[in-house]
Automatic annotation (TrEMBL):
Gene3D superfamilies: Aldolase class I. Residues 7-20 have a biased composition (Low complexity). Its EC number is 5.3.3.2. It holds the Pfam family FMN_dh. NCBIfam families: IPP_isom_2 (TIGR02151). One of its GO terms (cellular component) is cytoplasm. GO terms for molecular function: FMN binding; isopentenyl-diphosphate delta-isomerase activity; magnesium ion binding; NADPH binding; oxidoreductase activity. Involved in the biosynthesis of isoprenoids. Catalyzes the 1,3-allylic rearrangement of the homoallylic substrate isopentenyl (IPP) to its allylic isomer, dimethylallyl diphosphate (DMAPP). Residues 1-20 are annotated as: Disordered. FMN binds at S86, S87, M88, T89, S117, N145, K212, T242, G292, L293, R294, A313, L314. This is Isopentenyl-diphosphate delta-isomerase. It is found in: Cytoplasm. The gene is fni. It comes from the Bacteria.
Length: 367
């Protein structure tokens, strides 16, 4: 029987040997992020915008459950359902347990997964194992992760290759988080010249680069510039879910940083607006919708609007903090919700959700 996460003692093999002061601070921040997300109310007061849409109910779908197909591909890899366990954590003993539980669940159910920022592992390679999940998930679509801003703070192709190799990852997420860095005490705030550095990185890496926000959204204009740089996919990570301004405000000891977090807690572009605007200018780019998705109905709406995958973070974190069984229950519920949308809209496959009239603006008339 799986024990709750907070009852698990650190594995002896994970003992750290004299990490640097900076690495210790980064690890402490990672641990605080987990605690704050699980214990505090750090949700944005903005909505995702998905509530503005509804599916047209089909009372006679002419389908049976055996006809429904949630399978898809992303970046050339097959998935059993259009679900991504979004990038969350790593760098601590508790994060190691969370990542292993998440990865094992992704393997069982054929889902994609990203890990949290691996900057802490660059600073202290002793914690690489808190991200390494291939032992329990040899087949999943797996994303490594670094902050794009670190390309202005001594990181380059070598460090990016290192985090990809450590994970045997299929792609590298470069997360874009200017607001979080502004609110975070001693955050890294030099974002100058990054488009050129991202373009050079995309050209040098042997795996695709995914540009991802962290909860404030990617606009169509920024998406076009990122595509022009060569990124292989975009994760909109729009507003409507966890507010990292709120998270950093909860952690802040400095009154100014706490004020900044509260002032900008509801900053960003709602997830639905990100999807529709990006699809209008980049119809072919692989697109992940994340930011406030909480159930299979949200994922289905995001796909109907043009996303290829739906990414969830907080629901998976909460389940992983409980047990493997809780993760399985969550994933089964998400899949049941997706299948219900397919059946009740008369859609045999995910692509059918994009047929005209299937998803309409709430309040719009029907034939």
């Amino acid at each position: 029987m799986t024990r709750p996460i907070d009852s698990l003692s650190p594995a002896p093999a994970q003992a750290l040997s004299a990490p640097s002061e900076q690495a210790i601070a980064t690890q402490a921040r990672k641990a605080e992020h987990i605690r704050v997300c699980l214990e505090e109310n750090v949700q944005s007061h903005l909505t995702t915008g998905l509530e503005r849409y509804r599916f047209t109910h089909c009372c006679l779908p002419e389908l049976a459950p055996a006809d429904l197909n949630l399978h898809t591909t992303f970046l050339g890899k097959a998935l059993a359902a259009p679900l991504l366990i979004s990038s969350m954590t790593g760098g601590t003993d508790l994060a190691r347990v969370i990542n292993l539980r998440l990865a094992a669940a992704a393997q069982r159910h054929g889902l994609a997964m990203g890990v949290g920022s691996q900057r802490v592992a660059i600073e202290n390679p002793e914690v690489v194992s808190t991200f390494a999940v291939r032992s329990v998930a040899p087949d999943i679509l797996l994303f490594a992760n670094l902050g794009a801003v670190q390309l202005n703070y001594t990181y380059g192709v070598e460090e990016c290759l290192r985090v990809v190799d450590w994970l045997r990852a299929d792609a590298l997420v470069l997360h874009l988080n200017p607001l979080q860095e502004c609110v975070q005490t001693r955050g890294d705030r030099n974002f100058r010249g990054l488009f050129d550095k991202i373009a050079a990185l995309c050209n040098a890496l042997p795996v695709p680069v995914i540009a991802k926000e962290v909860g404030n959204g990617i606009s169509a204009r920024m998406a076009q510039r990122l595509v022009d740089c060569g990124v292989g996919a975009i994760d909109v990570a729009g507003a409507g879910g966890t507010s990292w301004a709120r998270v950093e405000s909860e952690r802040a000891q400095d009154p100014l940083q706490r004020r900044l977090g509260n002032t900008f807690a509801n900053w960003g572009i709602p997830t639905a607006d990100c999807i529709t605007s990006i699809r209008a200018i980049a119809p072919q780019v692989p697109l992940i919708a994340s930011g406030g998705l909480r159930n299979g109905l949200d994922v289905a709406k995001a796909i109907a609007l043009g996303a290829d995958l739906g990414g969830l973070a907080l629901p998976f974190l909460q389940a992983a903090a409980d047990s493997d069984a809780a993760l399985d229950e969550l994933i089964k519920a998400l899949i049941a919700e997706l299948n219900t949308v397919l059946l009740c809209t008369g859609s045999a496959a995910l692509r059918d959700l994009r047929e005209p009239g299937i998803l309409v603006k709430a309040g719009a008339g029907m034939e």
